Amino acid sequence: MRARGFTLLEVVLALIILSVFATVCLQLRLEGLRAGRALAESQRTQRLLSDVLDLARARMLPAPRVERDDAGRVERVVWEGERAGVAFTCVEDETDAPAPMAGPDATPGAVVRVRRLTATAAGQRAVLYLPARGAP
User: Fold this and answer.
1) 75 within a domain of the structure (yes/no)
2) Which pTM was predicted?
3) Are 65 and 81 in contact (CB under 8 A)?
4) Which one is predicted more confidently, 99 or 31?
5) Does residue 1 sit within a domain?
6) Domains held by the chain: number
7) Residue 67 is part of which domain span?
8) Sheet of 111-121: strands edge to edge?
9) What pLDDT digit, counting tens, does each position of 97-106 carry?
10) Burial group, residue 37, by CB count within 10 angstroms (0-12, 13-18, 19+)
11) SS3 of 105, please?
């Protein structure tokens, strides 16, 4: 009687299949780790931008650069600095925004003047709209 066993070809094919499976699993794990790091960095930057907007709103950032128009009115206020090791820029300007549609006497297409704070850091941007100075 002849002994039954695996041939060398069967063993080599099994090893190839296992190594391909292990390589795919390791690549998926590596991609997951990279995506997790990228997400954590993005969340960190968003928290930083939120902090910068809060500080700009409270006027607690370092002295800004003020840009004026020809008539001497403030056109833009620009803060530049570094927070938690990340460089940021925050710009405050005034712009028109669509008025909220509330109540029976709301005018479609009406606009209101608002202050816009735009913070930028690490390639990300966050915007905060506030009532214009002197607005009711």
Assistant:
1) yes
2) 0.71
3) no
4) 31
5) no
6) 1
7) 7-136
8) 65-68, 74-83, 86-98, 111-121, 124-131
9) 887 766 677 6
10) exposed
11) coil
